[in-house]
Specification:
Number of strands: 0
Shape: elongated
Order of helices and strands: HHHHHHHHH
Helix content: 55-70%
CATH class of the domain at 25-51 and 63-194: Mainly Alpha
Largest sheet: none
CATH architecture of the domain at 25-51 and 63-194: Up-down Bundle
Number of helices: 9
Radius of gyration: 22 Å
Strand content: under 5%
Distance between the termini: 38 Å
């Protein structure tokens, strides 16, 4: 048994290529660690939180509205990812270009993910005013779902999912380019599979609740509730259907 365990440990510690010796520069190794953290951990967590936790499981919706926990986590998490990505880029800024076609493609997709991240951050400043009954102004781009807000939501959601998919490809290409240890590929694969499983489970539960309803509730007197939600798989509820849905969910979990 000990011999078998040692064989497995040796196999896991070897680089993906199987070479016995593997060296990576300090800059390249830290570039990889930082980029895995920001694009492989913070980015997908930020997407999950924004999609499924606009109404918290313990929240008494629609009596309690506009819980900003998801917004704070999403903003800080994605902001940290952008800052870390800048550090990761700086670490390899002056290094030579990729020696192999895969390394060059890793560079192209890495720059594309970084550009999408910056675009997302800048788009946040163009989302317009909030407004609503809690706001003294009442009118607002979000409350009224103006063309400006519609454009922001379509763009922000589309670019966010594009960045997520491209980040996944980039991270795995980076592992191959760096000839990373096999355990690292296994760990990151299990992490992403866990994220996909969590996504599917939360989606099935009906946790992808419309942002507008999460903030202002289901009353159709609010203008945004009289138009279709923006995005795929988004649920809207009445107070009764929400209570029924999540009572049923608790009974089956």
């Amino acid at each position: 048994m000990n011999l078998l365990q040692n064989d497995w440990l040796t196999w896991l510690l070897l680089p993906l290529s199987g070479n016995a010796h593997h060296e990576l520069s300090f800059w390249a190794s830290w570039h990889g660690r930082i980029m895995v953290l920001c694009w492989g951990v913070l980015l997908p967590l930020g997407v999950l939180i924004a999609r499924f936790f606009k109404v918290m499981p313990s929240q008494n919706w629609p009596t309690v509205l506009d819980n900003k926990a998801w917004w704070t986590a999403h903003l800080h998490g994605q902001g940290a990812a952008i800052v870390l990505a800048a550090v990761g880029v700086a670490l390899i800024w002056n290094t030579a270009g990729g020696a192999t076609p895969l390394a060059r493609w890793h560079g192209y997709t890495g720059w594309a993910v970084t550009a999408l991240g910056i675009a997302q951050a800048l788009a946040g400043f163009a989302r317009g005013s909030k407004g609503g009954p809690q706001d003294a102004r009442v009118r607002g781009d979000h409350y009224d779902m103006t063309p400006r807000r519609n454009t922001f939501e379509k763009t922000h959601k589309s670019l966010g999912y594009a960045a997520l998919l491209l980040a996944l490809v980039t991270v795995f290409m980076g592992l191959v380019v760096a000839d990373a240890p096999r355990w690292m590929l296994l760990a990151i694969s299990l992490w992403w599979l866990s994220l996909i499983a969590a996504f599917a489970w939360l989606q099935k539960q009906g946790r992808c609740i419309d942002t507008y309803q999460a903030i202002w509730g289901p009353d159709t007197s609010h203008p945004g509730n009289r138009i279709a939600p923006i995005g795929w798989g988004i649920r809207r509820y009445t107070a009764a259907s929400f209570a029924k849905q999540f009572k049923k969910t608790k009974e089956t979990t």
